[in-house]
Amino acid sequence: MELEPELLLLEAQESMEVAQSYRWELGQRLQGLQEAWRQIKETKVTLLQEVDTIEQKTIKPLDDCQKLIEHGREIAILGGIGEQNEKLWNSTKKASHIQLDSLPELDDAILNIVKDHIFKHGTVTSRPPVQIEKLIEKPGGIIDYSLQFCKCTSNHFEDIYVGSETELIVLHIDPNVDYQFRVCARGDGQQEWSPWSVPQMGHSTLVPHENIAFWNDSESLGVLYSSAPTYFCGQTLTFRVETVGQPDRRDSIGVCAEKQNGSDSLQCDQVVGISTNGAVFVNGKEMTNQLPAVTSGSTVTFDIEV
């Protein structure tokens, strides 16, 4: 099937708009890094100013000593050598006790942390991330449930399920028969079960479809249906082929929404089926996927979910 030029042009335009939106969003995200870099440069200027201030404070005694040495020779010639030697000794002694302040330093460990954060900041992908659509509150203290049932004509309850699931499909019950259901729970770290709930009544109108054999002895009818709707979402339906005859392209096994009167094949509307050669048909149209051919001893299973 060929796409119309207008549709291709529209898809290309949408892709360009999405890409432009991604570029704008990426630029917005990187503005934070640019602001951090500006703050780093400002901090650098501040630290250099502090270094200059410390240098000016600590170098003054050394300058005084240097001046005294430079003028010492002239003073020694003119006289008063002893007095000047005493001054030189005092200046030297004073300079030896000067404690220079430590320069402002940055812990090297933080550099690796910053580099790692910058390297991991932001990713670009062609697919959107997974989103949480709904949060459901459930009691976390309950770890096990026990479900029992019995026919309304009997008071003998039987176990159906023990586990942590809060929903269950009950199988193997008789149609059009009333059943009673009750449940109890057990909390975390507890061995005893809670009291049983008030029994709830329910029944099913679905006819069992297990262990039923189908065959067609009529030469005029091409499709064989079950006598009633017996299959719904959440169940598993399995067909096993015992024997096969002369193959025909219309031969199929499938499930349908309703009986199609006058149809000689299951390859029609509201039907999902598999032909004997493995082709899959949905609403009468053949799909691209291909399954193995159906032969004697083959099994075909249908699982339907909403």
Automatic annotation (TrEMBL):
Its main location: cytoplasm. The keyword Methyltransferase does not apply. Residues 109-208 form the Fibronectin type-III domain. CDD domains: FN3. The keyword Cell division does not apply. GO terms for cellular component: cytoplasm. It is found in: Cytoplasm. Belongs to the cytokine receptor-like factor 3 family. This is Cytokine receptor-like factor 3.
